[in-house]
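To: structure subgroup
Subject: Chain for Friday's discussion

All,

I'm putting the inputs and outputs inline so they're searchable in the archive.
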Amino acid sequence: MSSVFMSGTSTVRPRASSDSEAPCARPQPRRLHHCAALFKPRGEWGKSCAPAPCRYGVFRLTAGWCAVATTRRGICGLVLPSTRARDAAAALRTVRPDALPGWKVPRGLVRRLEDYFSGRSCDLARFGLDLSCGTRFQRRVWNVVRTVPCGETRTYIWLARRLGNARAARAVGNAIAANPVPLLVPCHRIVRSDGGLGGFSPTRSDAMKVMLLAIEQRIRSGEGGCRRQTGLPVRRLSP
């Protein structure tokens, strides 16, 4: 028996169901990327999206105090060694003001950073990154920077040419200065074509850039050991 509804002067009958009608599509489950993405080899989240919840932790290396921030997509902020833990935490909050404290930094990350600053290993490519904070151009720059091998350098002009615009060296420099994850995106390997260091960033000194290049030169030559000295020769390729 069909029901009839009276609405004013019109009669509304419910539409009968038909076997020919397509059933409602069942929503597909959304793929989730777990915390294991932090250790995804050379992983990188580059698409702009809503900021993911971010937490950070502070830890101590032989070279000093560091801080790292992460989302469920990967590492989104890294602070190079500072003399005090609170300085590292403050520098981290300038990179990710939304980051909350209390994250326990994985031992694997601490061990690999310790190996780096001790001059034993330069293997930092296995950690997944969340670079969604950057613009599309910045992410393009950072991804090309990640291709520069340890112990070598490239110039700003070389990087601009790789991006298809040799006149974009200044914009490239600005993108490098905004890099939130130094070492993991090795912006210190980009130098000026006249042999100068070029800038690093407002929160990282030129002395730190020289030290990182010296460490990598020692790793490449197999000497090992973390020495805080400057002026060591670094292999630089022409643009």
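Points worth raising on Friday:
Residues 44-236 form a domain with the Arc Repressor Mutant, subunit A fold (CATH 1.10.10.10).
The chain has one domain: 44-236.

D.
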